[in-house]
Predict the structure.
Amino acid sequence: MSLSGPQWVNQFPTSASTDTLVQPFRGNVNRFIAALTAAGAQVHISATLRPPQRAYLMHYSYRIAHQGLNPQSVPAMAGVDINWVHTNPNGTVNLAASRLAASQMVQGYGIAYAPALVSRHSEGRAIDMTISWTGDLIITNGSGTAVTINSLPRNGSGNAALHHVGATYAVIKLHSDPPHWSTDGH
Amino acid sequence: MKTLAHPKKKCASLTSVALAAALAFFVLMSSGANANKKESQNFDYLTQVGIAIRTAKVTCLSISNASLPIGSRVFLVYASSPQAVTRAEVVRKQKNPCTQADDSGAPLASYELGRTGSQKLGSAPGIAIYGFRGKFAKQGASVVADLDGDGRLEFFRSCTSQEGVHFTIWSDKPLQGKRRWHRYVYLGYDVEPTCTDPETEPDPI
């Protein structure tokens, strides 16, 4: 097992490819993006799958570093061969070294708020993308009907008409997070 | 309500010998207060409030104002409880945006911020206030200030949504008063949501 520390931060990176999404969401997203692109909209994807292993590492490094969790209490995760417990030469637990290593991970990830352990992103059922266009957007919805969007704002985060179009592809907008779309709006 | 002393502000003890100097000082402060009141009354939330974000290398100010002078001072209000306020200065303009995944369409400018004294800048994002020379005060665990000089106190809040932070400024009372300013910061990882609806609603178009 490899000791916890900043060397873990670059493992299990977040994906920005729709290929990492699960079906049928992957196909739905690809069709929605194809319709947006065909309509002349600009689409930039910032995140799709956040591997569960990454969420695990972020979640528990934060809890050890900032919430007093005993590193010996962290449950193991299949596929993540990490040892959260640093020890002294005599074999006793070195809590300070364990917390320092966790803090270095928190810093490396750039964590400012407690990370969630499970999310639609870690399930491959969410995508973060910025969408923008100029003028009217004439886009084909999931039923094959052309829809003209002439309302404001001309972006994916706030345009209710585009959210309705997304829903016809079963790509649902989460209103509280501007770039976030998922299978169920969570 | 407890008034927060400005950083670096030093108390001077008066002696009878320095009475004339004290009088001049009083006149200077009074005229300064008037100037500050005038400036505050012209306070523009859009161009005078932004977000300071700690990136891998620097603290980056994202604000809808492309003409902040280098060396100008900004206040940083850290809106997580217990709230705190510190000062920073604009070091240089940056080419790249501070944050990703912002499709609000707002023309945001980016600046590197530096500390002005011994106070370290926080690692959490903070609400950055430019061009305000009034006073901040503490009301319980909250930092308050009359930013726009209308006699009503402004309150600062932050909350987490699914994968970002919503920052808001409210007049009179948080969540119940008038929302004066709102900004979303994308975190790039999932967090536990704490926001209420009034904090996440987009600004009217």
Chain B touches chain A through 32 residues (CB under 8 Å). Chain B has one domain: 18-200. The first strand of chain B starts at residue 2 and ends at 3.
